[in-house]
Amino acid sequence: MNCVTVVVVQHVHFDGLGRTRDDIIMYEIADVFKAKNLIDVMRKSHEAREKLLRLGIFRQVEVLIDTCQGDDALPNGLDVTFEVTELRRLTGSYNTMVGNNEGSMVLGLKFPNLLGRAEKVTFQFSYGTKETSYGLSFFKPQPGNFERNFSVNLYKVTGQFPWSSLRETDRGISTEFNFPIWKTNHTLKWEGVWRELGCLARTASFSVREESGHSLKSSISHAMVIDSRNSSILPKRGALLKINQELAGYTGGDVSFLKEDFEFQLNKQLLWDSVFSASLWGGMLVPIGDKPSSIADRFYLGGPTSVRGFSMYSIGPQSDGDYLGGEAYWAGGLHLYTPLPFRPGRGGFGDLFRTHFFLNAGNLCNLNYGDGPKAHLQKLAEYIRWSYGAGIVLRLGNIARLELNYCFPMGVQSGDRICDGVQFGAGIRFL
Amino acid sequence: MSLVAEAFMNQLAAAEPWPENAALYQQLKEDQILLSDNAASLAVQAFLQMCNLPVRVVCRANAEYMSPSGKVPFIHVGNQVVSELGPIVQFVKAKGHSLSDGLDEVQKAEMKAYMELVNNMLLTAELYLQWCDDVTVEEITHPRYGSPYPWPLNRILSYQKQWEIRRKMKAIGWAGKSLEQVLEDVDQCCQALSQRLGTQPYFFNKQPTELDALVFGHLFTILTTQLITDELSEKVKNYGNLTAFCRRIEQQYFEGHDKDGSAAASARSAKRSESDPDLNKIWSQIFTPECFCLAACQMPSSCKCVTHLGVQLVELMR
Fold this sequence. Notes:
Chain B: Keywords: Acetylation, Membrane, Mitochondrion, Mitochondrion outer membrane, Protein transport, Transport. Chain B: It comes from Gallus gallus (Chicken). Chain B: This is Metaxin-2. The complex is a heterodimer. By secondary structure, chain A is mainly β. Helices cover about 10% and strands about 55% of the residues of chain A. Chain A has 2 domains: about 10-85, membrane protein fhac (Ubiquitin-like (UB roll), Roll), CATH 3.10.20.310; about 140-425, membrane protein fhac: a member of the omp85/tpsb transporter family (Porin, Beta Barrel), CATH 2.40.160. Chain A has 4 helices and 21 strands. In chain A, the strands form 3 sheets. Chain A has a 16-stranded antiparallel sheet. In chain B, about 65% of the residues lie in helices and about 5% in strands. Chain B has helices at about 5-15, 35-50, 65, 85-95, 105-130, 135-145, 155-170, 180-195, 210-225, 230-235, 240-255, 265-270, 275-285, 290-295, 300-315, and strands spanning about 25, 55-60, 75, 80-85. Chain B is globular, with a radius of gyration of 19 Å. The relative contact order of chain B is 0.12. The chains are: A mainly beta, B mainly alpha.
């Protein structure tokens, strides 16, 4: 038997299945039976192994290919055996965290493969000296179609926003459906949140004080993502388009608005291992009815992950130094990433670093919705803030990136807070 | 706030004169505000009237959460936000207006003692009645407290507040009291106040002080607010000089001023109960829409009319 001999996969065995149900396994390994020659069998088995691992229910999957034994064995028959180790029913983690003047203990619990069809329940609870927060999540994929899934989340999250002197506590429940359509990924979500806003300091401006109190937001949202990049952090090629819309107020609650926002990114590789990247963000919030928009729904601009050279979220309408956010914004960036000069540590550690030249611009304002679109465009085009500079970017795994830039902010309006000179940023989503 | 910071703030405050656009924030008058909050707000309004400082009343559904201390009312003067009667008196004093300057040390101590009495007895009794008496809670407090919010937030917020107040009652030992005992305490408090007042026009000398404002705020609200039963207002009505005192302060400070926060109008709309049809009939006979319109138009003559009617109501309720 060699690589091109026609073979037939007669049996596929599974060793080590416990609570996992058969039907979801069948879907993932169906392709293996279609393999025609040895190379194909190996490739299809490898793909099946990847598919089984992404279900998140096995710790380990080993594949064994052997000739068929037994009475009904054909001369070119093959047996493929998958040896799997299921994850334990319950995994837990316990951490302590120490932050600014506070400490907390974080308890995490995960129940993978709860009912045998790759359902997952996760629970995280954080108990701290200042705040308590928790999240409970139930996830269920469709058997045979892991990308179509459904999850329900229950959460309480507290946030402190010193740029607005605002404290926000959200207690909410959300249900979401994810499904792919051709090359795009869609998410449909309903969310009900009880929001509590408060002042972070006694010196908060009166405009922020007026927003304190409770509100209930019940909204439906839809998001579409097309991502053809090769990596989400420092991609070398490909494009990303995300469009998100949210309609609040028609399913209950006392907050009513229509919110649209989009994110676009294009990457192209140039000579000598350098990459040119262009990105554009924008959004608009239209309050429905008489009530003005809430500070918790508006957009914010500025900071090391947004328009660099300005302090965190410190662009736009403000009152006594507290930034109130705006109902419409746009932001764009042009970047050139090159390897470090003289390429130190090439092939190893040095590959995680890139030098980075950038040009960022953006504007954030409130629109008068009575005027036409021409007036809106005009308002967004006046008082553009922009900045340019250079720096170093470090990639952290495939999740986050750190930046250290030297920035020159321009187009600064009165009221904006700038951070000219060295600026450090860490995050997952950068302009 | 630390003592040093407070002293510094007072220095800053003292430098500026009282502005024209000072505002007092409280909950929504018609549907939301409760007895205890209305009493507190009225006390502050009376105090500012007595000091001759103009202030306009702004009603916001989230006034309680806007307040830096979590209690209403609070005033927004220039850049500063001050809540509750005690700090407001201090704040106003730093600006050079004071009602108790003419008192000697002994009288000042006495005034503080009586204010503590009102806060510990009357205010706590009002809170008890609102939040610990099951009938009142079901029929009046819960619907009113959560009225600006959608379901289920209205239920969550009122239950949260009720739990908080009941915990406070337990801490001060009032949880075990029955309604009769609470009313007894109210009676004793009124007796003490009545004895101190005697036949004088105000509690100290011939000039009103913050104690008069506080007592007026609570007693007037109790007298003119319709609850499930009128046992509470009966206890106050037993003391003729107290009702006369309320009438006098209302006539002197709340008629002829041009805000719609006239005492009678605000107290009247504070609570309604559907459980007493006879009283409701009397209610509708006295307060015809015409009278309300007149009051809203803020003509001096109409305010007299309203006050006169307020007196009639008090007479009728005997």
